[in-house]
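Sample entry follows:

_____
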Amino acid sequence: MVVAATVLVLGAGAFDPASAVADAVQRWHGSATAVATGGAGAPGTTDPADDVGPPPGATAWRWPVAPRLVRPYLAPPTPYAAGHRGIDLAASPGDEVRAVADGVVHFAGVVVDRPVVSVRHAGDVLSSVEAVESPLARGDPVAAGDVIGIVASGGHCDGGCVHLGARVGGEYVSPMLFLGGIPRAVLLPTRRG
């Protein structure tokens, strides 16, 4: 009975994850659309692979710490739903954290219970790193590769990490858009024993 009721509610069009993702994609612009749709491309494009990369006016990023991904970006189905609005990179407390691109410090301080540094870049792009302690202040200029702080103890990863977030025009996007893009998925044949 419960299963039938659940199917009935979902079948009646209550929450459709595909529609929610499509709605979120429509709020994004430019090449961010390709990332959100897994390479489906923005409306009117001929080759989805052409859209993978930074938005117009933005530049490619450098890794803030060694590129060892511990947790990928997970777009939420709606703006206020749960998700993972960034990527986690393995790091240890005390490791140096570097600016991903030229920009100006937008924020350096504590959010909730962890230190955060946000940098505004060209193309209405904002990067943020946490848990990162920094001597910088709002308005300080930074160049790509400059040390902007050190990994702090705590954060949301067991064993330490740096959370790297990206926003374009105020909307969260995958930082991988700026770190070499998101390669197309390639299906490999299975081997039968």
